[in-house]
Amino acid sequence: MKTEGFAKTEGFAKSIVIGIMPQEQIRKRVLAIARGEYRPGPGEPKIWFTSMKSLAEVLSDDNRALLRVIAETEPPSISALAEATGRKPGNLSRTLKTMSNYGIVDLMRERNLVRPVAKATEFRIVAA
Question: Which range marks the domain in which residue 122 is found?
Answer without folding.
Answer: 2-127
